[in-house]
C-alpha cells in the first residue's frame, strides 16, 4: 500500500489522460493482507488506477500505471472473490503522501466482489501495453527522446510539422463543435414547440399520437438543463440539480418498479442533457440533496455498496413479500432468474434477494454453480 497516494477528486488532471473503465465494490489488499479500503469504486484511466470510498468522497487513492510491472489473476472460490494481483516497482523517494509509508510487499491485490474482473484485467493489460502516460510529455521533449540522432534541423522540422497538424486539428474540432451546438439549440427549440402543441391541442390529439410525441421529447432531452454557468456552484447548483433529477426521473422510476441503479440514472440523465453532461461526482452530490429537500426521490446505499435511486413511496416490505412468494412459487431462484421474472436488472434482483434473506424470507445455497436462493423452510415447516 506504500505505492498508493492520496488523490484529488478530479481524475483527468494529467495531460492526455482519459477515462477507460470503472468497477464498483472493489476492495484493496496490501499483498496478502486485507486493508481498510473496502467496497470502493475503482476507476482505470490511461495514466493511473484510482480507488474512491463511496461513503467518504474525500477518501481517494491513486496509483500511477508507470509503477506496474506485470499482472496476475486469481480465480474466485468458495467464499473467496476473484482478484487481480498487481506487481509493482518501488516508488520514487519524492512520491506524494499516501496511506502507508512502508510495506513488506511489492504487490497489491484488487478484490472484485461483484465480478467484472475479467473485463478490468483486459482493459488494464491493454493500457500497460500502450503506455499512454509516456505520451504526455511536451512535444519538444518527445521529439528529442525519439529522434536524438537526427540533428537540430530534423528536430526543428518535426516540431513545426507537429504544430501545424495540431493547429489544423484544433480549428476543425471547433468548427465541428460549433455546428453541433447550433443543432442542439434547434432540437431544444423544436421540443418546446411540440410541448406547446400538445398542451394547446389535447382534445385533437389521439392517445397514440401523444405517446409518440412524448417519446420524441424524451430522445431530444431536457430543454433547459441546470449548469454551473446558469446556477453557480456549491449548494445552489446541487439544489437545483437535485430538483431537475427528481422531476426528470419520476416517470422512468415508476416504469422501473420504483427503483433504479445509479449507473442507469447516470446514463439516462446524461443522454437527456445532451451537451451539458454531468460528472459522477456532481450526480452523487445532487442525489444526496434529495432527502434534505424532501423530494419524492431518494438515494439509498445497500449493504453491498450498490447505490440506487428510489421513490419515497417505494415499499420495501411489499418487495420482500413479493420476492418471498416468487421464490416459493419457483422452488428456487438465482439473481438472473429473478431478473427475467421481475423485468429488472440483475444487480437489483440480487439486492432484492439479499434484502429478503436478511429478514429471513429466503435462504441461500452457495456452490461452484453460483449463488441460489430457496424458500426458508425454517419458517414454513417448523412453525
TrEMBL record:
Subcellular location: Cytoplasm; Endosome
Span of domain GLUE N-terminal: 1-140
Keyword Secreted: no
Keywords recorded for this protein, A-Z: Cytoplasm, Endosome, Protein transport, Transport
MF (Gene Ontology): phosphatidylinositol-3-phosphate binding; ubiquitin binding
Keyword Magnesium listed: no
SUPFAM superfamilies: PH domain-like (SSF50729), Winged helix' DNA-binding domain (SSF46785)
Cellular component terms (Gene Ontology): ESCRT II complex; late endosome membrane
Predominant location: cytoplasm
Gene Ontology biological-process annotations: protein transport to vacuole involved in ubiquitin-dependent protein catabolic process via the multivesicular body sorting pathway
PROSITE patterns: GLUE
Pfam families: EAP30 (PF04157), Vps36_ESCRT-II (PF11605)
Function: Component of the ESCRT-II complex (endosomal sorting complex required for transport II), which is required for multivesicular body (MVB) formation and sorting of endosomal cargo proteins into MVBs.
Family: Belongs to the VPS36 family.
Subunit composition and interactions: Component of the endosomal sorting complex required for transport II (ESCRT-II).
Protein name, per record: Vacuolar protein-sorting-associated protein 36
Source organism of the structure: Mytilus coruscus (Sea mussel)
Lineage: Eukaryota, Metazoa, Spiralia, Lophotrochozoa, Mollusca
